[in-house]
Amino acid sequence: MKKFKKDFLSEVLGFNEEEVKITMEAQRKFPSFLTEEGEGFCVDGRTLWETLEVKQDFSDWIKKQIENSESIENIDFTSFPFKREDKNGWKSSIEYTFTLEIAKEIAMFAGANNRANIKLKANSKLVRKYFILMEKGIKGIQEHALIREPEKQNYNKMKEEIIKDYYTKQDAVTKLDEEYLMKRESNMINQNLMGFSASEIKVKLGYIDKQTREHLLIEQNKTINFLQLMIIGLVMGEIEFNERNKIIKNICDSKYSHLKMI
User: Which helix (H) or strand (E) holds 25?
Assistant: First the structure.
């Protein structure tokens, strides 16, 4: 089951206020929609039927939705036998799971039906909007993961080069020296790119943990990773910190001024 936190939607995925409101409302009203299956997400057909509050029998209704949406089994949906318990005891049924795209179509068809009541129309509209935002959110999560992992790896490479460079100029390097050097470099990136240090960003965004980059927009993290790679090359080229700072500032001012936090 996929749940999104309000801060993640706005801070990382860049959802606007209305999109956040719809997503949070839908998650409260429909708490068990999305399940992860294989390489993607799917929607349980019976849960969709219950959520829309359709009055028609589930088996008849779901078969009609498959026909209306021209869904293809094992591509758009899967079916499987299932035993469920109701007030009359255990009974066999056929259950269905749908891709997010087809579930969105079914929700649209349900609300557009001339016989749909006001409640069904309202549920259909909210569910459809929710599915659209879930598609956007899931793509965002996948992109975020693809960026954050190499970003972490390149941070460690940057640290390795900076510490190695410092060792060649000092007789001894302490843990405090290493912490200072990396805080200085990271905040140089933060201030040039976003206009604030990590501690200032923390106050501005209102989070309590120390994982600043987990709260940044995908595009900001993508750019930070690029700047880290630039710094690795500059350090290897024996460019001193003050000069690196000027180079990174020029890059940020000329190409990434739109990423500054207001």
Answer: helix 17-29
SS3 5: coil
The answer to whether 196 and 190 have CB atoms below 8 angstroms apart is: yes
Which residue type sits at 48?
L
The model's pTM: 0.68
Element holding 71 (H helix, E strand): none
50-91: per-residue pLDDT in tens? 888 888 899 999 999 999 899 999 999 999 998 887 777 888
Edge-to-edge strand list for the sheet holding 77-86 = 34-37, 40-44, 89-99, 77-86
Query: Strands 89-99, 77-86: parallel, antiparallel or unpaired by DSSP?
Result: antiparallel
What pLDDT digit, counting tens, does each position of 137-175 carry? 878 888 888 999 999 999 999 999 999 888 877 766 788
70: left (phi over 0), alpha (psi -120 to 50) or beta: left
The C-alpha atoms of residue 156 and residue 262 are separated, in whole angstroms, by 29
What's the burial of 65, exposed, middle or buried (CB within 10 Å: 0-12/13-18/19+)?
buried
